[in-house]
Amino acid sequence: MRRAQPFGPLQFAALSAGVLTALLTCVLIIAPADAWWAFAFPRELAMYRLEHASNYFDFGGCPYAPAESWQYIRAQPNAAELFDSVAVQAQTGAGRVMGVAGLMAAGTQSRASRHESHEIRTDSIAFLWAWDRKEIVPLARALKPPLIDSVLALMQRPLPDYEC
Question: Is residue 24 a part of any domain in this protein?
Answer without folding.
Answer: no
